[in-house]
Specification:
Number of helices: 12
Membrane topology: Multi-pass membrane protein
Oligomer: single chain
Radius of gyration: 21 Å
Helix content: over 70%
Transmembrane segments: 30-50, 57-79, 105-126, 147-168, 180-200, 221-244, 256-278
Shape: globular
Number of strands: 0
Organism: Myotis myotis
Subcellular location: Cell membrane
Protein name: Adrenocorticotropic hormone receptor
Strand content: under 5%
């Protein structure tokens, strides 16, 4: 968010005076390389589902939604680097109308990436829950039409929320709303997990006979969720510390890792496609056919 980045730049010198921690700076080439890899990998995931009719099912639509979120996060950094390069070359007027508008659009992509990831993981969790505990009714409950409708609503809400957050990014309630969505998603998925395990204990025999294969999907979700938390939580914490204790020496020491936290976000987009390929034989086979140009 532009408000967060500007706030970071404004308080950085003051915070550094209160802390002995050096500011960690990473080469822009690292960000650019990771971002390009993230876009290409998630684009392959989308193409694999589009080209393979066997993968055109609700579960893979939800995975595509998460892939789009990851791709937007990578695209955000690529566009930001291009904008900075054009400004440094003198093609853009610093703080001009075009740069300000472009900043707002790029920031919207960043927020959209986080919101899209949160809601995509939540809907994947709900899909796994239905798959495991309502296996016989799954295809009547989760239809392609309903899945598309749910994703349309999710991305409409995410887009509107992203634009709104950029417009009001200078206000504290916006920052609180932005950061609160992260723990709310964790609470929602945790509640599903607790309910799943309680039901699994009381219906262990039924679960083992009906949904043993579907438990693999729950494990995949757990891995995706763990990677998402590992990659995004440091940045969310950074935003909170920057907003509420910018001059505290301990907060300032953590904020010196700003670029490291940003790199973790970029890595999330690179790691997720490998999880899909490792956990899903169908996607893995589709990737092989695409890479080696085989016919479906």
């Amino acid at each position: 968010m532009k408000h967060i980045i500007n706030l970071y730049e404004n308080i950085n010198n003051t915070a550094r005076n209160n802390s002995d921690c050096p500011h960690v700076v990473l080469p822009e080439e690292i960000f650019f390389t990771i971002s390009i890899a993230g876009v290409l990998e998630n684009l392959i995931v989308l193409l694999a589902v589009i080209k393979n009719k066997n993968l055109q099912a609700p579960m893979y639509f939800f995975i595509c939604s998460l892939a789009i979120s990851d791709m937007l996060g990578s695209l955000y950094k690529i566009l930001e680097n291009i904008l900075i390069m054009l400004r440094n070359k003198g093609y853009l007027k610093p703080r001009g109308h075009f740069e300000t508008t472009a900043d707002d659009i790029i920031d919207s992509l960043f927020i959209l990436s986080l919101l899209g990831s949160i809601f995509s993981l939540s809907v994947i969790a709900a899909d796994r829950y239905i798959t495991i505990f309502h296996a016989l009714q799954y295809h009547s409950i989760v239809t392609v039409r309903r899945a598309v409708a749910v994703l349309a609503v999710i991305w409409t809400c995410c887009t509107c929320s992203g634009i709104t957050m950029v417009i009001f990014s200078h206000r504290i309630p916006t920052v609180i709303t932005f950061t609160s969505l992260f723990p709310l998603m964790l609470v929602f998925i945790l509640c599903l997990y607790v309910h799943m395990f309680l039901l699994a204990r009381s219906h262990a025999r039924k679960i083992s006979t009906l949904s043993r294969a579907n438990m693999k999907g729950a494990i995949t979700l757990t891995i995706l969720l763990g990677v998402f938390i590992f990659c995004w939580a440091p940045f969310v914490l950074h935003v909170l510390l920057m907003t509420f204790c910018p001059n505290n020496p301990y907060c300032a020491c953590y904020m010196s890792l700003f670029q490291v936290n940003g790199m973790l976000i970029m890595c999330n987009a690179v790691i997720d496609p490998f999880i899909y390929a490792f956990r899903s034989p169908e996607l893995r086979e589709a990737f092989k056919k695409m890479i080696f140009c085989s016919r479906y």
